[in-house]
Design the sequence.
């Protein structure tokens, strides 16, 4: 659990350094807004990481083992890449800055593949809730440092110095990876790259069945759709004159302070509850609470500008989102076979990003067409299809399902071409 706390910190550290914090530096350096907007493209590796994830299942570094070896390699590369940002000058060499930021995002996405696989392999089923919660805690603390403290430091120090300090914090993850326990390998890694690419799909559908496997993938896309709709439009709703017209300082203090704390408490509480009631029941309970929490935004839209209700709304929504995250991460881990956990988790988490990044794209137009109160009711309705799929593959009282015989996968291995 201590290792997962520090690895969560290392996983969250690079994210804002190539997005929000970097945007702040570029704004101070008077980079034009169109260029700042285009820098969002440096985050593409996070969405495309499933493409090279089979490499981390197939190849084992010559030191520290299959999972920790990749962690140390990527964290060392991140330390150097973030430190190199101290040499950049956004107002003079924007292309070099973009290349440097893209390298950070690539190494960060690769670290995420290794971290997710490590977490999936090292935790027993009864530990998944607590492990997911502890990991999220470390991740959120890193976001607080790189998104909050880094901006405060930038007022007193230079931006290059801030990035140099942030790079040194990667040493926390580096040291943790060296001292963390290597997961016990219960099965051999794929024997070829073609196996590492194809067998994760074959094994997943053999284990779950084609129809149920497909429904699980649909569920992953839909489970957090209602929450994603609200997250996408909550800030415009609170700031715009057509919404509630709160000040940026008010919204920032509540969302970035109390909201972040509520999400951490929610994740930790979710992990503790999940350990008692199991993954299936947690998906039911936390998914329902996640949907109902959107109703607080509907009440806020009806009441109008009300500071006390704003505080209550943001805290309830973030707490319930933290509960849902704990259950969802544990569920994704439970779907992975240790032999292919890097590839399978990367693919499943990429599907989760579909609702966060793609399905929510029309949210602004929906809000314009329906008005804010109706929009938040629609967000509640959007959470229901995912919940309706739960009885099919995550029943409240699950029955034991026999495992697929080892011989099935062995037959597939024999037919694969050695690379």
Sequence:
């Amino acid at each position: 659990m201590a290792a997962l706390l520090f690895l969560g910190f290392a996983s969250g550290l690079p994210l804002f350094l190539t997005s929000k914090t970097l945007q702040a530096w570029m704004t101070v350096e008077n980079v034009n807004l169109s260029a700042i907007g285009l820098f969002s493209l440096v985050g593409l590796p996070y969405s495309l990481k499933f493409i090279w994830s089979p490499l981390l299942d197939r190849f084992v570094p010559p030191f520290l083992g299959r999972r920790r070896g990749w962690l140390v390699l990527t964290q060392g590369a991140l330390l150097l890449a973030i430190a190199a940002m101290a040499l950049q000058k956004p107002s003079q060499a924007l292309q070099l800055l973009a290349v440097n930021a893209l390298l950070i995002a690539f190494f960060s996405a690769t670290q995420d593949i290794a971290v997710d696989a490590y977490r999936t392999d090292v935790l027993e089923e009864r530990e998944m809730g607590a492990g997911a919660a502890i990991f999220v805690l470390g991740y959120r603390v890193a976001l607080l440092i790189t998104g909050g403290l880094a901006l405060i430091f930038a007022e007193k120090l230079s931006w290059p110095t801030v990035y140099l300090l942030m790079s040194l914090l990667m040493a926390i993850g580096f040291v943790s990876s060296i001292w963390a326990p290597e997961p016990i390998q219960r099965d051999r890694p794929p024997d070829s790259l073609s196996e590492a690419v194809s067998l994760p799909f074959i094994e997943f559908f053999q284990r779950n069945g084609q129809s149920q496997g497909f429904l699980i993938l649909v569920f992953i896309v839909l489970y957090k759709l209602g929450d994603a709709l609200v997250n996408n439009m909550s800030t415009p709703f609170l700031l715009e004159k057509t919404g509630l017209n709160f000040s940026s300082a008010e919204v920032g203090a509540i969302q970035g302070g109390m909201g972040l704390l509520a999400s951490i408490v929610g994740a930790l509480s979710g992990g503790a509850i999940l350990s008692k009631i199991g993954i299936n029941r947690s998906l039911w309970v936390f998914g329902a609470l996640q949907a109902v929490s959107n109703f607080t935004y509907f009440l806020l839209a009806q009441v109008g500008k009300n500071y006390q209700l704003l505080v209550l709304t943001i805290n309830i929504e973030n707490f319930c989102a933290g509960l849902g995250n704990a259950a969802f991460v544990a569920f994704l881990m439970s779907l992975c076979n240790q032999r292919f956990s890097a590839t399978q988790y990367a693919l499943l988490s990429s599907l989760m990003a579909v609702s966060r990044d793609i399905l929510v794209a029309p949210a602004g137009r929906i809000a314009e067409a329906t008005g804010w109160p109706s929009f938040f009711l629609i967000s509640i309705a959007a959470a229901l299809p995912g919940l309706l799929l739960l009885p099919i593959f995550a029943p409240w009282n699950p029955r034991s399902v026999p495992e697929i015989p080892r011989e099935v996968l062995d037959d597939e291995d024999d037919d694969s071409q050695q690379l």
Q: What stands out?
A: The radius of gyration is 22 Å. The chain is about 75% helix and 0% strand. The longest helix spans residues 248-277. Confidence is low (pLDDT under 50) at residues 400-419.
